[in-house]
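pasting for ref
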Amino acid sequence: MNAVTRITLVDDAGQKFFGEGPCRLLHAVEETGSLRAAAASMGMAYTKALKILKNAEYALGFPLTIRVTGGRDGGGSSLTAEGKEWLKRYEGYRDACVQANLGLYPEFFPEQP
């Protein structure tokens, strides 16, 4: 038996707006330079990826990405400075929660390996 820690952030109305999926999406945007390519790399529709980002940005009150519409020179996406800082803070919080859980689990379930 194992305990798994999953961090999902919700807004004041209790609606999910950030967790591992959006976190992975932002990393993929950083890697590919494109929201469309990031979505495709995750097997996700571009429209769903855009909805996820817009939902998170609305809840947070700041843009996570800068999106440039395509055209002759093509488009692209990159993380804003706030987006990079948010990602860093979310991952730090998530990792701290995982570490805390690793310490608490044997305290409450000492009979488990």
